[in-house]
Amino acid sequence: MANEALGIAVPRLSLVTDRSAAVRKVSVLGRGRRFAQLMGIARKNGLLPIRTLDFSTAPSGAAKRLVQAEGLRRALEEAGGAFVKMGQLMSTRTDALPEEFVSALSQLQHSVTPAPWQDVETLLVAEFGAPLESLFSSFDREPVAAASIGQVHRATLKSGRVVAVKVQRPGIVPEVRRDVDIALRMVNALSLSSPQARALGIKAAAAQYGADLIRQLDFRLEARNLMALRALQTRCARSGELRLPELVEALSTDRVILMEFLEGDTFASLNERTDAAPAELTAAMRVILSAFVRQIVFDGVYHADLHPGNIMLLADGQPALVDFGSVGRLDLQLREAVQELLIAFLQSDTQLIADGLLALAPLRDGADERGFRRDLSVFITFELGPGARVDVTTVDALVAILVQYSLAVPAEFIAAARALAVLEGTLRSTLPEFDLLEEARALAAGQIRDQMAPANLREIGTTELLALLPSIRRLPRRFDQIGLALETGKLNVNVRLLADRRDRRLLSHRRE
Q1: Residue 355 a catalytic site member
Q2: Which of 46, 165, 198, 428 qualifies as a FRET site for 280, CA 20 to 30 Å off?
Q3: How far is Cα 355 from Cα 334, in angstroms, rounded to an integer?
Q4: Which pLDDT tens digit goes with each residue over 16-50?
Q5: Cα–Cα distance for residue pair 388/425, rounded to 1 Å
Q6: Rounded-to-integer distance, Cα 127 and Cα 11, Å
């Protein structure tokens, strides 16, 4: 490359370097000091005692909630790090949080104070191993976006290409690890003292998001996620509908990631405007939902954090996705199970849906299969029927049934369902009348038709034949072995009686 010819050491994506290994465990003393600081922030913003926080929707408490919600937003922003991320997560809980809290917390998606430029420049020079002037013809000191983990600057490479430079906040790694530890302790205390918080399922949500936040500290993960999504996007039938920025791989590291700069507005900013055209937003949302369905059901790689700040509407009306730190994955077996469940859902067949879930996670011996099918049928009828709304509580209700009957459903499956709930929160805040289930049903049917195209069928057939080849090549040898066993009288046949638990249960009932 040109930069290498100038003698500049250009960093590349690599799995060898792992600076996170050098981060020490959170010290008790450091955690204690931080906890005291957070208590001071909470007290200053009127959040103590915790039990006085009002998470109800009673009209009489609206004025009080408005003050508390604004105090919570200020406190989370001042606390920074993991606490801002926690607030962003809760801002999508429009199904459970009062409107005052949702409105205040949604401001965290685009109003985080940026890190000082001097510190940012020092980090960038250390990562690139060269002054910024040697790589960029211009570099905006003021970020176009700032979040709790990183911030994005607009810059122009020497080649004239305009790029978005996402840089990690200096010193953020040990801070986030410490804050996640403290946040989980505080959320546990809140859950114990507030029945409303327990009803929200805030403890489980915080634990899941804390683990995901730790993973997002390494920008190499985001780079790999973006490359995977782009590779799969190019293979779909309507690849041009959705825009994903192109990665500048040669200048990306574990603390800095460069990608194509996209001109447009986030849905978070559009939600605050009154001049946004509903028809344009609806069309964009259909594209986003269609892409999400395809990513979950067929690609197995999906954007798991589609809150309003991560979805853009470009100047030409094309929707785009940004921020690829949280991307989920489903293996082939799970994708096949999801496809069977989708087909059953499109056919409104509750028994087939139950069959699909049981194939994914069989019941234990002695479990009440009839009861499970009955409860699941009731859930589907009321929670996924016409006019229903899918949100985080819908996922929680399904999980409750699975737990009740001790079904060990893979965590990846539940994570995908929660990602859908996050997208539903974005849809509800942007287009309240958008019917997610009906739209998803129509889009899923279209995705299945796309998969039945001749080119896709040929690819599927080729893949299946390749999988069968090893078995086909072993057939002649196996026939020889069977023939030799017959000739010598050594052929044995093993039969496992009552191997199926339903057969054992039938025998038990007959005995009674």
Answers
A1: no
A2: 165
A3: 14
A4: 344 544 444 556 677 888 889 999 999 999 988 87
A5: 14
A6: 7
